[in-house]
From TrEMBL:
CDD domains: PDI_a_family, PDI_a_PDI_a'_C, PDI_b'_family, PDI_b_family
Recorded catalytic activity of this chain's protein: Catalyzes the rearrangement of -S-S- bonds in proteins
GO cellular component, one term: endoplasmic reticulum
Similarity comment: family membership: Belongs to the protein disulfide isomerase family.
One Pfam family named in its UniProt record: Thioredoxin
Source organism: Juglans regia
Top EC category: isomerase
UniProt keyword NAD present: no
Keywords: Disulfide bond, Endoplasmic reticulum, Isomerase, Redox-active center, Repeat, Signal
Protein name: protein disulfide-isomerase
Amino acid sequence: MDSRFWACLFFMLVPFLCNATLVSAGEHVLTLGHSNFTETVSKHNFIVVEFYAPWCGPCMKLSPEYEKAASILSSHDPPVILAKVDASHEANEELASEYEITHIPTVKILRNGGKNLQEYKGPREADGIVAYLEKEVAPASAEIKSLEDATSVIDENKISIVGIFTEFSGEEFNNFTALAEKLRSDFDFGHTLYPKLLPRGESSVNGPTVRLLKPFDERSVDFQDFHVDALEKFVEEASVPTVTLFNKDPSNHPFVIKFFNSPNAKAMLFLNFSSELVDGFKSKFYDLAVRYKGNGISFLIGDIEASQGPFQYFRLKDEQVPLIFILNNDGQKYLKSNLEPDHIGPWLKEYKDGNLQPFMNSEPIPETNNEPVKVIVADSLHDLVINSGKNVLLEFYAPWCGDCEKLAPILDEVAVSFENDANMIIAKLDATANDIPTHIFEVHGYPTLYFKSASGKFVKYDGNGSKEDIIDFIRNNRENSIQPETVKDEL
């Protein structure tokens, strides 16, 4: 999957989540890396670790919030430790791979000396971080409220999970407690001996039952298989709306997060909710979501006024709404705009039948490309790099990346060194504005350099940014044995 795309789109669609974690450590945030990570984590029963990159805009936004939360939690009894790892640093690449860091920032909670791992899914402001983590470190039993004295466990705007038992003991109750321990950061749990205390159909309860109460679809669902794996699967499936709603209402935000965390392909319809056509679109979209349920597609409908994310990423104009796009697990994107309600069904069928062409985000191909370092865009990547039959050194960069700016004049010098070699190309591609094939290139930070040999072998550059080292790397990997005289002279 194209993790750059997911991160970009997610932050544009859900701006309330963009405030994401620390870049420069304060006095209460531990700095970890490959040399001290394992030793440090092994000493703590509970530690929170953020994987970030110095160049990441979203990572910078919550720097003071993360530090503030760390300061508050340092006085907790026992203290709650917050730490960070620069996932873009070459020395930490193995750590990032081990912990499956596919986008940044990513925050992980490690328990029992690192033996147990879970994703942090909480708020991004200091008070929210503190409240979420205090709940995480509390005993699980404290999170299972008795409905007899705490009916407030049921919030009409949230998902609540209630166990109904004849006694608070035995295998079924213990398995329910284990479920609460595992999922307590995502849901509110309660239990009761008295079904009459339950809203929404209490007379239907017969025997030990788990009831999931939710603010959407059928509002309540019962389940009576008390194996932990079966309970967890039930909760995960029943807690997802048939169609996730994205608008400015913060009560919908947790469901948007679950939508993006789903492994399914994602079909997203955006339109103006103030339009008189919105009811027709919503009805048709919901019917299709029901029809495709269980077929590996999740559905979201969004108010275009709540986010300009699709326009920003796909470079669309406002008049192209309504628009629908699909993102699959291979990072491919499919787009249709200016559609009518009746267009959606046939278009989805074309996608399922494999008859749609993926959408590629690309800058225009330059009309002139005469500089020593050639400009590559998504639409020219295959012709000028992948299928060129030449040796190519390609830089993936970001316009706002300071290290990329430092490398630019060095690459110019390298390109000049090879200007008499028709079999060698030095090139660059703006990875923030062009889609790249992620099955060929792994780009987790900027700048990233790849060498493509004349026969089509791809090698990632892992040296430093000096002119001499880059030229030496090219010489060791190029397949044409004839070297330009300028390079020989310089070496």
